[in-house]
Design brief:
The complex is a heterodimer of chains A (266) and B (268).
Chain A lengths: L5 E5 L4 E6 L10 H16 L5 E6 L10 H8 L3 H19 L5 E5 L2 E3 L1 H7 L3 E5 L3 E3 L13 H19 L3 E2 H6 L5 E3 L4 H13 L3 H14 L6 H15 L2 H11 L13
Parallel strand pairs in A: 2-3, 3-4, 4-6, 5-7, 6-9
Antiparallel strand pairs in A: 1-2, 7-8
Chain B lengths: L5 E5 L4 E6 L10 H15 L6 E6 L3 E3 L4 H6 L5 H19 L5 E5 L2 E3 L1 H7 L3 E5 L3 E3 L13 H19 L3 E2 H6 L5 E3 L4 H12 L4 H15 L4 H15 L2 H11 L5 H4 L7
Parallel strand pairs in B: 2-3, 3-5, 4-6, 5-7, 6-8, 7-10
Antiparallel strand pairs in B: 1-2, 8-9
Helix pairs in contact in B: 1-3, 3-9
Classes of the chains: A alpha/beta (266), B alpha/beta (268).
Chain lengths: 266, 268
Amino acid sequence: MSEPVVLCATDSRGVATVTLNRPEVNNAYNADVIDSLIATAGTLAADDAVRLVVLRGNGRHFQAGADLKWLQEVSTQSPKHNVEVSRHTTDAVRGLNEFPKPTMALVHGGCFGGGTGIVAACDIVIAAEEAIFSITEARWGVMAGPIFPQLNARIGEQNARRYALTCERFGAKRAHEIGLVHAVCPEGGLDQAAAPIIDAILQCGPAALRENKRLITDIAGLGVSDPLAEQLAQQHAAKRQTEEADEGLRSFIEKRNPVWYPGTGA
Amino acid sequence: MPEAMILTDVDARGIATVTLNRPDVHNALSGDLIAGLRAIFDDFAARDDLKALILTGRGKSFSAGADLNWMRRAAGFSHEENVADAKVTAGMFNALNTLPMPTIAKVQGSAFAGGLGLVACCDIAVAAEDAMFAVTEARLGLVAAVISPYLVAAIGPGAARRYFQTAECFDAAEAKRIGLLHEAVRADALDGTVDGILREMLKNSPPALRAYKTLIRECAGPVSEATRNDTADRIAGIRATAEAQEGIAAFFEKRKPAWAIQQEGSGR
């Protein structure tokens, strides 16, 4: 039997660690990962012994975004199936964003596409200084719909307009400047950097934290409404089934430039 | 006669200074202090001759937030009394936030919880670089409710999600980075920095500045009465709970609250 794609362990203090576990594909998400994340979040939300959740990636990278091979397969299936997949993706990010207890992401290596959405949906984000970020979707002819409300809230319109439209890579320092991450630590120092923050959370009243989190969500307007979620899922699914997305995803699989890239002109 | 808990002064230029004057209790916000501030803000709001208002504190702290003795008494209140009381607090922050003239928080010492709310309600915030900040409510089993619209507007949702939920202390440099402060300067440069800002401001047309106050508020999304009532309901609801009473009791008894005991030995 193969290893689970999402690992979960809770320590005696009530700190649950959720580890993305597809290191062979840089923890890229597929249907199995999305299902496991939704199920894990449900279990941890309902468990009173769990005080906070720490999210991390196994292997060299935190998370590489969608598994583009899986996405390419999905794109050849019915529109109905594509909408279902996008709804599921949207629900997973929404569920993480509105998870009733504090959430913390510990980022090392690459954090691309949907990975940036996972990070933006967590309450506290610490990145190792070598971490690299990119909102990569448009590079492959697809869109970042399901994660956009969270990303926009976290980095602001000014930065969302740049980084979602350029798909540029940026480092941990820049991620800190634009507000995507709260703190940057030396390579290999994530646990050490997280420890005092976890300790601070454990000193707070659990019921007070639930109320605090709901308050921030309401006051800052961080919740995603059902109609918006449905709209994002529909757009996300429809874009995946365009010729442009087909070319973009193929270019990834075939390790070549997509036809729309004219080169640097140099 | 005891000294007034709030000092006010208006200079020849029309600059009003409001000084929190309970240094022995770190300028904690008691019911009396809140009512006193509200009366002063209402009084000053009606005066056309005032060009700007400076809010500062006397002593080591700017303000340590709610007076917990006063908060503890709320446990004996009915829900209606609790809500009414929280609305008075919400009204004071709203009065500061909507003052018609420019306001500057001159943060000479640390600001916690409701003290941070006062800073966030001012247009400009300048602090001594050794001042510390924290949204401490959750540590006591409470929520930073009535100040949240102003604080989230100042620091943004990303920083709010961290600092509301960790109640960590952060320094003036971090407070400046997340947008709470405009300047963090050496303590001995605080007066000079605020005066420099005022000198620039006084070159501008007073009616234009008053028009900006409304304009900026409208563009940024005003804090509605519904939001103020909603946040008052939230703090009224939580401060009578067993968890909040345990948190406040633990504070007075200088011990860890029940929910923090299980992790002793694993941290600090």
